[in-house]
Amino acid sequence: MTLLEAADVTVRFGGVTAVRAATVDAAAGQVTGLIGPNGAGKTTLFNVITGLQRPTRGAVRFAGEDITRRATHERARRGIARTFQRLEAFGSLSVRENVLVAAEIHHRHGRRRRRHQQSPAQVAERLIARVGLDRYAHRPADTVPTGIARLLELARALALDPRLLLLDEPSSGLSTAETEAFGELLRELAGEGKAVLIVEHDMDLIMRVCDRVTVLNFGAVIASGTPAEVRADTDVQRAYLGGAE
């Protein structure tokens, strides 16, 4: 089921068109990749989906509802969470406290309340263990390595119990082994019914974990399909992957 549709989105900043009539979908139970060269408009499109940037034209629909004019916090309450290319952790708080803040917010304001719901502290502990942060839990967030801070942002996003998870360069700073484990976690999250939309430059990771991939270049979608279809696309090879004559 298509959970997210950002349809015919255009974003202009003065005379510069950052995103040009782009359409991106994300389905529940799937990992969707969004790739392209630096400056292609990927993060701008994420900002449109999460409400940080108003589109010049186009619409964003989530679970059948037009949310184009909804505020960022309203989208979060509907089940949209994200991480950022530039790390946004609370540096003076510990890793555990960062995740706990998000769990507390969701406990108080989340729309999907369940019987026998775990306490915020229980949610934080569960997610810290799930993403592999146990050994860093008591350390201030601004003292951990970049890759660990990426996992912290993921745990914090998951604390909101999202239906749609947007990840912006999440594997940056991870070791090879950590990237392997991270890819497995993404597949697990999709298997639980979440829609995952990931911006990533690690093509091995993208081709391994994604069900579908959309490619942006100069703000426009130049290809969309399975990883194999995208890898074989000559326009994509010329613009990003390399290998085409």
From TrEMBL:
What GO molecular function annotations does the UniProt record carry, in alphabetical order? ATP binding; ATP hydrolysis activity
User: Locate the ABC transporter domain: which residues?
Assistant: 4-243
- Keywords annotated in UniProt: ATP-binding, Nucleotide-binding, Transport
One CC-aspect GO term:
plasma membrane
* Keyword set includes ATP-binding: yes
Q: Which InterPro entries match?
A: AAA+_ATPase (IPR003593), ABC_AA/LPS_Transport (IPR051120), ABC_transporter-like_ATP-bd (IPR003439), BCA_ABC_TP_C (IPR032823), P-loop_NTPase (IPR027417)
Q: Which domain of life is it from?
A: Bacteria
Q: From the Swiss-Prot or TrEMBL record, give the protein name.
A: ABC transporter domain-containing protein
Q: Which species is the source of this protein?
A: Phytohabitans rumicis
